[in-house]
Amino acid sequence: MLRRLYDWTLDLAGHRHALPALALVSFAESSFFPVPPDVLLIPMVLAARDRAWRYAAVCTLASVLGGYAGYAIGAFLFDGVGIAVLEFYHALEKFEQVRAAYNDNGFLIVFSAGFSPIPYKVFTIASGVTGLDPVEFGFASAVSRGARFFLVAGLLWYFGEPIRAFIERHLGKLALLFVVLLAGGFALVKYLP
């Protein structure tokens, strides 16, 4: 079944609507969708290595725009619901302390989340909630997401067919590793102090 899914994704990567699908997944992942765009980026680069840089650029741009959508969710939806919850639990003062600490290190936090397997959307929303400077947020997002997607595309472009053969030979193990990293990222966010 995993092999059929992999083959289907490779076929999708060659479809004429693959680029808009990549942009949509990249945008959605930055604000609410749990699946990272790498699941499309990787097979798309493998299917058309000459377009690797274009795919990475689209992925980056859509991800940063999606990050701003997550920022807006935090900025505009938190006031209606989040504050009432914090007041109910008498945690508003503690939240204000956390907000200040978050914004003091905002660039580093957003940069780390954008490059790592930690769910980026959590930090886009948190940045909106805390009112992190939108320019600082956008710069950190562009640098980290761009570094991540261009690194993936560059490695696949450079190594090409040997990487594809490696992926196909170890598909089960790589899928398991991907799930472990994704679950680990969510767990890390859940248990961070």
Description:
84% of the residues lie in helices and 0% in strands. It has 193 residues and is mostly helical. Helix 1 packs across helix 3 (38-47), helix 6 (106-115) runs antiparallel to helix 7 and helix 6 (106-115) packs parallel to helix 8. The mean pLDDT is 80.
* Helical segment count: 9
Strand content: under 5%
Q: In one word, what is the shape? A: elongated
Percent range for helical residues? over 70%
Query: Which ranges are low-confidence, i.e. pLDDT below 50, for 5 or more consecutive residues?
Result: none
SSE sequence, one letter per element: HHHHHHHHH
Can you lay out the helices and strands and say which pair or pack?
Blueprint (H helix, E strand, L loop, with lengths): L1 H12 L4 H12 L8 H10 L4 H37 L3 H13 L1 H10 L4 H11 L3 H36 L1 H21 L2
Give a short synopsis of this structure.
The chain has helices spanning 2-13, 18-29, 38-47, 52-88, 92-104, 106-115, 120-130, 134-169, 171-191. It has 193 residues and is mainly α. The longest helix is centred in the middle third of the chain and has 37 residues, at 52-88.
